[in-house]
Amino acid sequence: MLMSYAYISEATRDLSLDELRDLWLKAVVYNEAHDLTGALLYTGSDFVHVVEGEEDAVMALTDRVLKDDRHTDPQTVILADIGSRVFGYWPLKLMNIAGNDELRSVYSRERFLSYHRKERQKALFALARL
Hints:
By secondary structure, the protein is α+β, with helices and mostly antiparallel strands. It has 5 helices and 5 strands; from the N terminus they run βαββαββααα.
């Protein structure tokens, strides 16, 4: 069964473009090897991460990612079975919106966590179109 897991967490420090690129490259290799898809949004202060795949693979990645010291205080925003992938063509779509105040306000931790479930889903699906 396919599932989707998404969380928002607080970055423990500013990441450089090189650090983001290295993170992305390693994640793409891992995700391709485990048939995972998804997106990682970096706001400069927070991460929003969506992972899609078979339940065992999603949960294994989740265990790894949640131990990463580049972020803290992860809050689950979606954990659900899905019929099809939203990010099917992306092993990991990386979006760095640290310099975009309009998008940062939409995906800020406080605002995102205040959304109702349907609003959160809509905001996460919108990542596929960014």
